[in-house]
Amino acid sequence: MLQEPIASVDKVKFAATRAAGMLREAIPQQTMSLRSIAKKLNYKQATVLSQMAKGRIQIPLERATEIARVMGIDPGEFLLAAIEQRTEDAHLINNSDFSDGRKGGFQMNLMMIAGIESGRGLDDLTEVQKRIIREVVAEAQPERRWLSVAELPAMIHLRRLRPRIAHQGLNDHDMAAIKDALG
User: Fold this and answer.
1) What is the 3-state secondary structure of 59-106?
2) Which end of the chain has fewer CB atoms at under 10 Å, N or C?
């Protein structure tokens, strides 16, 4: 009785995974050759990318966001898809929604907002951004303290009129004037 070599079973082990599919869809959309893309990613041979796209090998987690950026794939989505190649429980990483309804995670969403797609992560936020995020998390009632997008123009106008408002607030006279004006 002949036994099928293990290598042939593994050839397409990951072919049906979302990560392989994302890579397969992205390859034809590239303006560079697969060889040039591989070189840009510091792979010695383009066949590595081809094998990932065909599902013969897993997407390396440590390279997933880099590959995604070069290929024009959403890095957070691609990283999660690469994790899914290793475990079906990848959705348990955290519990926020992706745009298509899958679970992705608050931290991952923050990283995407911060610009992970352009190579940045949470550690790359400015010190002001980090300070504000810490303040939001520390605040018991953040909705009382932070402005909505709709409130922002009014606050910008007040800051122009009273530049010290951010550090000193408004004095009683200014508060009374606002109350009288808006009644």
Assistant:
1) CCHHHHHHHHHHHCCCHHHHHHHHHHCCCHHHHHHCCCECCCCCECCH
2) N
> What is the average pLDDT value for the chain, to the nearest integer?
80
Q: How far is CA 102 from CA 67, 81, 98, 151, in A?
A: 22, 11, 5, 32
| Cβ neighbour number for residue 74 with a 10 Å cutoff | 18
Give buried/exposed letters for 113-123 (b at 16+ CB in 10 A, else e): ebebbeeeeee
Q: Which residues 6+ apart lie within 8 Å of 110 measured at CB?
A: 122
Q: What are phi and psi of 97, to 5 degrees?
A: -90, 145
Q: Provide the whole-model pTM.
A: 0.48
Determine the Cα–Cα distance for residues 28 and 42; give it in Å rounded to an integer. Answer: 20
